[in-house]
Fold each of these.
Amino acid sequence: MERAQKSRADCKAYAKVNLSLNVGGTRGGYHLIDSVVASVGVFDEIVAAPRSDALVNVYMRGMGSEAIPPECNNAVRAGELFVSAFGTCGADIQIRKNIPLGAGLGGSSADAAGVLNAMAALYGKERAELAPLAARCGSDTPYMLAGGFARISGRGERVERLPQNVRPVLHMLLLLPEGGVSAAACYKKYDESPDPLRADSARLWAALRAGNFADVCKNVYNALGAPACALHAGTAEALALARSLSPSACAVTGSGSGVFALFETPELCGWALGHCKNRKKLRALAVRTV
């Protein structure tokens, strides 16, 4: 087994929001999507230390993650795939969760990507080598390896990123109700009543590249928003609250339960945050894209 080149690797696994999300049928039992996504300043903290054997141990803390069984933990799967693919020793991995579970912020995929990145740092592998492993850990995981702004399509395996010299900054309020929404249940609900409206991901993508905030906001939409609201009353209430704050745009992210609201300035975002304090069963955060 290949030994580690470092004694420790630390990384941050950032949450994402779906600025747009279309569902376009299925392939091989998986839904096909067209979505513009962005990393935001909420992240899980990952620390990996090498082992002398092939075991991968993952220790979760925070957000109720301690109750996730290892056999259902995407982070464990990512680590085991890494060891199997590269023939390396394993790792002891600590993950401090700050991304809520079941909020549509990609926490599970972020952790899987973070584990792959941390183990790559330990064992001297390049990020480009991780893509096939990431694709086996969930539809968002290939994107999560590097994060940032991207347009993802297919099952999530096709990732187009903004050029390095294009770095728009979006300010938003995250409204995170208690409890999560099952992605599988949300897609099933969508299939029962497909959404005839569609986000124009191509126009939103072009607007991001051009730095046109108004056009970005015109094309914010999530086809999974209605089923998420139907499945989780807290999501519907959070979306109604977001709309009441007169944002430039707002939508459910992913399959819920989280909601985001875009504001033109950080000051407006801070004002909106002030109106959401001390609400029961709702966590509010002012964040920016990273």
Amino acid sequence: MTSARPERVAAVIGDPARHSRSPAIHNAAFAAAGIDWVYTAFEVPAGGGAAALEAMRVLQLAGFSVTMPLKAEVAEAADLRDDEVEVLGAANCIVPLDDGRLRAANTDAAGFIAGLNADAGLEPEGLRVVLLGAGGAARAVAWGLAAAGAAEVAVINRTPSKARAAADIANATGEAGQPGRVGSLDGIAAADMVVNATSVGMGADAAHPGRSAMPCDPTLLRPGQVAVDLVYEPLETAWLAALRRRGVEAHNGLSMLAYQAAAAFELWTGIEAPVDVMRQAATAGRTG
């Protein structure tokens, strides 16, 4: 007896990747779209990005989502790079083209902007934003905010040179500094929105040693501001809980995860993503 095999296979690669929510999100999307695809997770350690792309060619895989620590490696190894990838130096999505070449894309910025609109009903145009962190996620958010018309994007990081580099991605709107004073913004208090793009507060369970940490003092924020924490493990970080107790509108990173996945789905399939299904699957949790 033979079993039916899927028409195409896509996957998330990274380390760790086995407990990613991405398989649940994409498999729900494939089912809703009525296409015979399957999505899985491959653990690929640092240094394996280029080899993973070669395996993608040989196995004729339909697409890769890319997580840490491979985003820079696959960006370098791909045949073509989108503008965002050239600027950010990182890719979170690999798209195989009909001619055999591999295209590196980054859907994080689009995912953040779409998630912000879905969760808070906000468009970035004219907003003054303080961004905590200067890593890959922060750079993608800075790019997305600037492209969408944010008035100011102030980046706060413990390492000034990294803050400046992330702020430069936002071009004329970008500034770097410390929490007490960021350029023309009077620190966090003058911002319309504060975004945590660090991993502070992340933890898979209550026993995780860093789960009670906060990226900044929640008393610096006030009702009327919006806060977004890109962390989604746990769904409510200690920082989000403290902000909500203060009456601050606060959202986690789950919508960004779902919307960046939706953008990748559309790049791979050419089909409009079933976003509502993907958001529900993201909320439901991990597979495996």
Amino acid sequence: MTFDEILKKVRDKAAETDASGTDFLAVQVNLTGKSGGVFYVEVKNGKISVEPYEYNDRNCAINIEPANFVKLMDGKLDPVLAYTTGKLKVEGDLGKALEFSKILKK
């Protein structure tokens, strides 16, 4: 998948996800490799925004290859396993990264 296709997939998922109960969460996703790029997912007042920019005041940043991120979104890759095997790296608040993965699974 290209960066734009992944971004669209994340936006589509965000549109159908109920984020009520989450006050604020800001996660920057750094897709590494050939078809990589940067985008952020922000949950604010129960609404999810996805934009193709860096987020300076983020809770955490996730570094992951595009193919593994797609597997994560599709539920084919466990986030804890991905973290412990080095497929996913987190800079910042690990708890917020876990909260983000739960929102992805909804």
Amino acid sequence: MYTKRIIPCLDIKNGRTVKGTNFINLRDAGDPVALAKIYSETGADELVFLDISATEERRKTLAALVSRVASQVNIPFTVGGGISSIEDVDILLQNGADKVSINSSAVKRPELINELASKFGSQCVVVAIDATYIDGEWIVHLVGGKVPTKRTLFDWAKEVAARGAGEILFTSMDNDGTKDGFANEALARLSNELSISIIASGGAGTMQHFADTFTHGKADAALAASVFHFKEIEIPVLKQYLKTQNIQVRI
């Protein structure tokens, strides 16, 4: 049985960690480098950093942040936000990132997935998919959930996998920040239909929600933000709980 991963997510805006509900109403959650260090020391398996603020200086700012994080953590971390070329990825990896996450840029130009997988390897490429349930279909959205597309979750996920992505980070916009649990039915279908890792995102509120997404949702990893940032759930306590539920985690 594979070990399940716990992944804190740090949404970065203007150099600070922020968190909202349903992708809006952002509030400050602290310094990303300090948070990253704490998570690395207290049992997180990986970290995800998503730059959600669009500035002209994004590449330089993000590269500098990545370098600072890399000096403080000893676990893999993924960086996303505004990545649209091999050059963007090269800069982030050179500064210490282990993987990159692409979203809007992949939908707009799917060949980017092939290019990055070919250049850096599939293990380096995470494709993030934000979707909301509308009239019986999971509809993919772009630009932080603001722009609906004509793509549906499962068709797009299959294409992403076929093009060489190593993992899919699926965020249910309906569940995001609600603390009502993950979208386990959709996650289970993704896991059943695809052979690559599926990371669950959106909806964590209790330790039971993590257990549910690993068992019912068949997720390979669970990502959360506010419950970790605001110390509602401590990662060491969560992992001990998951062990009691016969879920394999790294202690």
